[in-house]
Amino acid sequence: xxxxxxxxxxxxxxxxxxxxxxxxxxxxxxxxxxxxxxxxxxxxxxxxxxxxxxxxxxxxxxxxxxxxxxxxxxxxxxxxxxxxxxxxxxxxxxxxxxxxxxxxxxxxxxxxxxxxxxxxxxxxxxxxxxxxxxxxxxxxxxxxxxxxxxxxxxxxxxxxxxxxxxxxxxxxxxxxxxxxxxxxxxxxxxxxxxxxxxxxxxxxxxxxxxxxxxxxxxxxxxxxxxxxxxxxxxxxxxxxxxxxxxxxxxxxxxxxxxxxxxxxxxxxxxxxxxxxxxxxxxxxxxxxxxxxxxxxxxxxxxxxxxxxxxxxxxxxxxxxxxxxxxxxxxxxxxxxxxxxxxxxxxxxxxxxxxxxxxxxxxxxxxxxxxxxxxxxxxxxxxxxxxxxxxxxxxxxxxxxxxxxxxxxxxxxxxxxxxxxxxxxxxxxxxxxxxxxxx
Length: 438
Ligand SMILES: Cc1cc2nc3c(=O)[nH]c(=O)nc-3n(C[C@H](O)[C@H](O)[C@H](O)COP(=O)(O)OP(=O)(O)OC[C@H]3O[C@@H](n4cnc5c(N)ncnc54)[C@H](O)[C@@H]3O)c2cc1C
Hints:
Elements: E1 6-12, H1 16-31, E2 40-44, E3 59-60, H2 67-82, H3 84-87, E4 89-90, E5 94-98, H4 103-116, E6 120-124, H5 126-136, E7 147-151, E8 155-157, H6 159-172, E9 176-179, E10 183-188, E11 194-199, E12 202-212, H7 218-224, E13 230-234, E14 240-245, E15 248-252, E16 254-258, E17 274-279, E18 283-284, E19 290-292, E20 296-302, E21 306-311, E22 314-315, H8 335-346, E23 364-368, E24 375-380, E25 383-387, H9 398-406, H10 421-424
Parallel strand pairs: 1-2, 1-12, 2-9, 5-17, 12-25
Antiparallel strand pairs: 3-8, 4-8, 5-7, 6-7, 10-11, 11-12, 13-14, 15-22, 15-23, 16-21, 17-20, 18-19, 20-21, 24-25
Helix pairs in contact: 1-6, 1-9, 2-4
This protein binds flavin-adenine dinucleotide.
Residues 12-18, 43-46, 50-53, 55-59, 182-183, 213-217, 252, 254, 363-364, 366, 386, 388, 390-394 line the site of flavin-adenine dinucleotide (FAD).
């Protein structure tokens, strides 16, 4: 393969972030008279969507307790809504249901959504939530749910199709995407900046800037860029926690049942919103075996060939194997029992669904930062890092913001995600959710 000897902009990774950045950067360069998509080269070691973006459940929601996450997600939903067809985006909405301990968090999230103009409604009280859910699904029967945040924006998109949609948009702007080209290192210049990218096919000189959007390969790029493996974290109270690992890997547990997808419809026959249910009601299998009487949670959505979703992730102990991705999907062996019992707990239409669970590779690993929130920042004078801490399929708008930064603008939406926050203590507030991504 012949690769160019030089490119003004080199973007590593053809997932949701690399391709969104490439597309938006091409548009920025063109509209400002600074160049065009021909100045942008994307390097992908495998193929577009080969990483986490190609296996994501595809849920697009705004339900984040952290103000900065919520505001950024609103901007992302704007991009999803700009071309639902190309992105294979299903704007069906999203419903978060929680137990009493989550009421305050969801209420605060709802109030912020009202302020920023994100369309949602909040329902409080067990009876009221039950009535709301039964109007949607007459067989709704989940217990212990006292709060419901129903987002009327968001929904889900089909993972690989949306990546291909982005690829089409980037290529239509003249961006070149080279597949089968692995980045193996960076050649430093006289200052701290990078003067060339070293690949499996040779060296590419960098004219202007590099963007790395490596998804689960975050730690590998962090190492290549000689960034610290452990960091000190200043907490908002001023205490400093020393030597926190910068990267932790979690196994995302997901699965599906093979059913006629239209069996999961709303009362009027319409497409159902994505459901996220957390409750502390005891969870039993359909034949009465107690699985847990502690807080548990699942999410699920209608898919093309059934109903798909997941549950809380598990920390990966020790080293993680990434290639071929997804390599490590050794989910908890009790996951299918738990997830199917939880579906049945939610709606009687799912009673007896356990034999319909599809035994296939599902889920995968994600890389999480020291505080489980993204780092979007320059990590060298001319290298911008998009390390989304596994929040990011829904974050299709991050590329739009990064493109603006690359051409010299400030992004107030990305500012809260700068690396420096670990040193200054400007961390994001933590919610009562059992998930590392809420
Ligand atoms: C099972 C699972 C379910 C998820 N569900 C959701 C969800 O419902 N909603 C949501 O918002 N998020 C979800 N996520 C998180 C989301 O998928 C990721 O945060 C997001 O896709 C990361 O996008 P990315 O572009 O940074 O990385 P990726 O999509 O992983 O892309 C990185 C690319 O870089 C390439 N690459 C790696 N190393 C090199 C190299 N050396 N040289 C060249 N190329 C290289 C890879 O091949 C890959 O294509 C989920 C994640 C997992 C694992």
